[in-house]
Amino acid sequence: MPTIAEVLTVTERLWPASGAESWDAPGLVTGDPAATVTRVLLTVDAVSGTINEAVDGAFDLVLAHHPLLLRGVTSVAEDRYKGALVARLIRAGCGLLTAHTNADVVPDGVSDVLASRLGLVDAGPIVPGTDSGSGLGRVGRLREPTTLGDLARALADLLPPTATGVRVGGDYARPITTIALCGGAGDAFLGESAVRAADVYITSDLRHHPASEALEQSLVAGGPALIDISHWAAEWLWLDVAAEQLRSALSDVEFVVSDLRTDPWDFVVVQ
Question: Looking at residue 207, what DSSP letter applies?
Answer without folding.
Answer: -
